[in-house]
Fold this sequence. Notes:
By secondary structure, the protein is mainly α. It has helices at residues 14-38, 45-52, 56-62, 66-79, 91-98, 102-130, 135-160, 171-181, 184-192, 198-213. Helices cover 71% and strands 0% of the residues.
Amino acid sequence: MKDDVKSPRRYSSPFRLEQAAATRSQVLATALDLFTAQGYAATTVTQVARAAGVSVDTLYATVGRKSVILREVVESAISGTGQMVPAEERDYVIAVRAAIGAPAKIGIYADAVAAMSPRTAPVFAALRDAAQTDPDCAALGIEISTRRAANMLKFTADLRSTGAVRPELTDQFVADVVWATAGWEHYTQLVTGRGWTPAQFGDYLRETWNRLFLT
Length: 215
């Protein structure tokens, strides 16, 4: 009779989980600094690991290869929470849906874009550059752009439900204008290029969308 062979018991503790989360956060913060300072192509995994104070093996085990690190950096910047959060679960999306009236919904979203753009614009610029040489990053850029476009249609449908959107405007037109004007390129042109503040950018979005879309 053969003895039962027991597989090694996996052990985890709150301390180890906290340590892994802290390591992941440090790696992502370091990668963000390097990607935005010197570019994706010029940044190596070894550089990220060294600057984060971890081994390359630990970096791979905690986050993954370089394109995965960039994906995590992008998703963390979008959510502002250190991890990916589905659009419908983000605080500002919940607030937009709960708001009464199209002007209130527009105001909440314009303020949210102004608040998140300082952290997302540099990351999206790094992603754009990375997409030139890395197929995985190019696919990520397309994925996020497509996802944003779908979310803009949901925002438009929410505005339309208030009865305040001009009837001659199609949902696709409204969504496309929001997609373009709220984009990181537009933010960079006005804030970095023309010296606007993020708050001014938010006011501009609010005024533009109210004038263009509402009766």
